[in-house]
Amino acid sequence: MQLTHIRRAPRANLTGFDPRAFVASSGSPANDPWRRREAWRYAGQFTRWNRFKSAFPGLGIASVAFAAYCGYEYMFLKDDHAHAEGGHGEGHH
């Protein structure tokens, strides 16, 4: 059995409003009075990179501190128990 596609006619627009025509006609005007007032949102401290950097404050310091602790633990905090050899005594089998 083959699947068939049913094509339906587009629904009638009761209001007469065409959203595609509205989007096409709403391009940016030649002299936008709000352009200068909106420019600060994308420059200086509000650039995408600066917003990303400030999204995780302390992440760099925390990463360095964690790496230092892992290095300290690896070098100086050795496990004194010998788990691989014999265990707790000679009599245990």
Automatic annotation (TrEMBL):
GO cellular component: mitochondrial inner membrane
Subcellular location: Mitochondrion inner membrane
Signal peptide: none
Biological processes annotated in GO: electron transport chain; mitochondrial respiratory chain complex I assembly
Domain of life: Eukaryota
Keyword annotations from UniProtKB, A to Z: Electron transport, Membrane, Mitochondrion, Mitochondrion inner membrane, Respiratory chain, Transmembrane, Transmembrane helix, Transport
Topology in membrane: Single-pass membrane protein
Role, per record: Accessory subunit of the mitochondrial membrane respiratory chain NADH dehydrogenase (Complex I), that is believed not to be involved in catalysis. Complex I functions in the transfer of electrons from NADH to the respiratory chain. The immediate electron acceptor for the enzyme is believed to be ubiquinone.
Family according to the record: Belongs to the complex I NDUFB3 subunit family.
Protein's name according to its UniProt entry: NADH-ubiquinone oxidoreductase B12 subunit
Organism field: Hymenoscyphus albidus
Classification of source organism: Eukaryota, Fungi, Dikarya, Ascomycota, Pezizomycotina
